[in-house]
Design goal:
Elements: H1 4-16, E1 25-28, E2 34-38, E3 41-43, E4 51-55, H2 57-64, H3 70-75, E5 79-81, H4 84-100
Parallel strand pairs: 1-4
Antiparallel strand pairs: 1-2, 2-3, 4-5
Length: 102
């Protein structure tokens, strides 16, 4: 399993090579830290975000490898979203981001 720093670096590289999300996004890794994305800036800080995704580091990696279905993760409580509507709007961009982090 990758460390928080390794995952952050993968996300930083993915964000730098893409068009961006257009919204502030924060992964709350359930006590293991945070990954905050704001445009091209990626930090391990608990900063305000338009969408907060609460998920374990292990499940975040499983999402990136497509071993965990996002809808199943939500339905089983393994992933929580602060704004379902915004999450649905950003879904294609977030999936692209995940695909680049594997």
């Amino acid at each position: 399993m990758a460390t928080l720093d390794e995952i952050t670096e993968r996300i930083r590289g993915a964000v730098a090579s893409g068009p961006g999300l257009g919204q502030r996004l924060k992964f709350d890794l359930k006590g293991e830290g945070f990954i905050h994305i704001d445009g091209q800036a990626v930090a391990n800080a608990d900063l305000p975000a338009d969408l907060v995704i609460t998920i374990s580091r292990k499940d975040l990696e499983a999402l990136g490898r497509r071993e965990l279905d996002p809808m199943r993760a939500i339905m089983t409580g393994r992933m929580k979203l602060s704004d379902m509507g915004l999450a649905m709007k950003l879904q294609p961009a977030i999936q692209t981001l995940f695909a680049k982090t594997v």
